[in-house]
Amino acid sequence: MAFVVQGVVIYAGLLACAAVADADTGPLAGPLLVLFAGLVGVLLMPLLFLPASVIGEAAAKSGRLLTKWLVTSAIAGVLAMGYVFPAAVATDVGIAQSLLASLLGALTVLVPMALCVSVPHGAMKLVPGTPRGLRRGAAGSRDG
Known about the structure:
Low-confidence stretches: none
Number of helices: 6
Helix content: over 70%
Mean pLDDT: 77
């Protein structure tokens, strides 16, 4: 799900950039932009979402959704800023534009990160035979 959201956001951003620049995109712009958005999504998964999810799970062992979401969003935002700021500085833009780009990078990961946390959390609540429930049943006096 996160790849779909990332792809749509990046695709829309690239098309908006081409429209603002009044550039001739050509007949292959659409498929190439979709391919580029997919590659960015594939790169973001191990570099941004996976570390943020693992740290968020470790930090919020109580299982509360809000705590997990806040921790993972903060980690993902910091990682996104850490990736965007050096790239913006390397393109010879000013510090103010680099800070703005890194802030926008941090904001764009909030919704996909919320989905990455909420979907597994909700699935664990819906499935009655979760490992947590099985462990309680094995240690309890139900089985005699």
